[in-house]
Structures are given as structure tokens and as C-alpha cells.
Write a structure and sequence with these properties.
The complex is a heterodimer of chains A (about 110) and B (about 110). Chain A is mainly beta and about 110 residues long. Helices cover about 0% and strands about 50% of the residues of chain A. In chain A, the strands form two sheets. In chain A, strands 2, 4, 5, 6, 9, 10 and 11 form a seven-stranded mixed beta sheet that branches. A four-stranded antiparallel beta sheet of chain A has the order 1-3-8-7, with no helix packed on it. In chain A, a hairpin with a 3-residue loop joins strand 9 and strand 10. By secondary structure, chain B is mainly β. Chain B is built from no helices and eleven strands. In chain B, the strands form two sheets. In chain B, strands 2, 4, 5, 6, 9, 10 and 11 form a seven-stranded mixed beta sheet that branches. In chain B, strand 9 and strand 10 form a beta hairpin. Chain B is globular and about 35 Å long. Classes of the chains: A mainly beta (about 110), B mainly beta (about 110). At the A-B interface, strand 5 and strand 10 of A face strand 4, strand 5, strand 9 and strand 10 of B.
Chain lengths: ~110, ~110
């Protein structure tokens, strides 16, 4: 059974940093593109970034480019999102997504003073 | 900035048929945009329905189908069930960058 479990969410002050993790199981992690998608409270879905199977390619939406960094460790079956310079508008549920077929349950990130 | 546009809301009667569309600000949507469709119910994570225009996942009910229609990606629900009431999102690929549509709230009434 494919499982994606996000962790690392929480409350952070504006300008702060947070690192989200996604633990994957039930499939060969090294064979898949992975993405981060977020959803602000009461709003729609926003794709943030993705990473190729071997980390050879990474893409970001303009709104997080230079602030967020996506990475994956195929030896640990894990993906990460390092978020720096957080702003109030980054408050959202962050989803770990495999190839847009399987989604995690999400991690809530709240940016507030 | 690329914008993907969906109908904000649609209403359909149980047993009826409804088509949701997904338009791109850059022009006609083609298979090269690899349209995906997702369903999201309140308090739940999104669930994938359709990938690469018209391909269903193993869990996608047969009443859901994807296509290209009049320069847009389309999701058609046939014989709509009450449990199909949800928010539906499309997703398009722009040269490595993915963009979601704003979502369509489908009411079954």
C-alpha cells in the first residue's frame, strides 16, 4: 500500500524557517517524480515544486523560487521541503504528492507572530 | 503569468451528466499539457481521477471521463451520484511547471 506521511509542520514567525519531510512507503521511491502542493485555508490547490526520480531536475513556482528548496533522499525513501523567509501568505496545508496519483494527508504550516 | 480557468461552480441533478472544463490563458489546451483532474471533498486530501487527458486511475469510477473539448480539457461525469458533490481541480503542465485551475465546486441537487 502506497503511503505518504508528511511531518514538520507547525507555527513559525514571519521570516522564519521550517523543514517539511515526507516519508514514503509501499513503492519504489527512487522511480518516481515527487511534488509538493499546498492549499491555503479556504483556497484552491497550488503546485509548489517537483523533483525528478534521481534529483536530476527540480522545478519551482515563481512565488517560492529562491525561498524554498525541494530535495529527496532515495536511501531514506524521503522527500523534503526547506522553507526559508516564510511569510503570512505561506500559511497552508502542504501535501506530499507522488506523480500526482497518490497524496499524503498534509501538514499544516502557520506563519504568524 | 499563466492562468488556468475553471467554472467556479456548477449544479447537476442526480443521474444527470455534467462537463467541467479547464482553459489555459496561453491558448488551446492539447495533450501536451498532460491534463490531470482531481476531486477534493471537505476536510480530505485531493484524490486523483484522470491523468494525461483521458487516462483513469485504477480507483476512478467509470462514470468519470476526460477529454479535450473546444480547446479546453474537460471532465465529464455521467449518471452523477450524490457522493460526487465536491470540488474538482484540473492541472496543466507548462514546460516543467505545473499550474492548477481555481477549482469547480460541483453541487448535486
Amino acid at each position: 500500500e502506497v503511503q505518504l506521511v508528511e511531518s514538520g509542520g507547525g507555527l513559525v514567525q514571519p521570516g522564519g524557517s521550517l523543514r517539511l519531510s515526507c516519508a514514503a512507503s509501499g513503492f519504489t521511491f527512487s522511480n518516481y517524480w515527487m511534488s509538493w502542493v499546498r492549499q491555503a485555508p479556504g483556497k484552491g490547490l497550488e503546485w509548489l515544486a517537483n523533483i525528478k526520480e534521481d534529483e536530476g531536475e527540480k522545478y519551482y513556482v515563481d512565488s517560492v523560487k529562491g525561498r524554498f528548496t525541494i530535495s529527496k533522499d532515495n536511501t531514506k525513501n524521503s522527500m523534503y521541503l526547506q522553507m526559508n523567509g516564510l511569510r503570512a501568505e505561506d500559511t497552508a496545508v502542504y501535501y506530499c504528492v507522488r506523480n500526482f496519483d497518490y497524496w499524503g494527508q498534509g501538514a499544516l504550516v502557520t506563519v504568524s507572530s | 503569468q499563466t492562468v488556468v480557468t475553471q467554472e467556479p461552480s456548477l449544479t447537476v441533478s442526480p443521474g444527470g451528466t455534467v462537463t467541467l472544463t479547464c482553459a489555459s490563458s496561453t491558448g488551446a489546451v492539447t495533450s501536451g499539457y498532460y491534463p490531470n483532474w482531481f476531486q477534493q471533498k471537505p476536510g480530505q486530501a485531493p484524490r486523483a481521477l484522470i491523468y494525461s487527458t483521458n487516462n483513469k486511475h485504477s480507483w476512478t469510477p467509470a462514470r468519470f471521463s476526460g477529454s479535450l473539448l473546444g480547446g479546453k480539457a474537460a471532465l465529464t461525469l455521467s449518471a452523477v451520484q450524490p457522493e460526487d458533490e465536491a470540488e474538482y481541480y484540473c492541472l496543466l503542465l507548462y514546460g516543467g511547471i505545473w499550474v492548477f485551475g481555481g477549482g469547480t465546486k460541483l453541487t448535486v441537487l
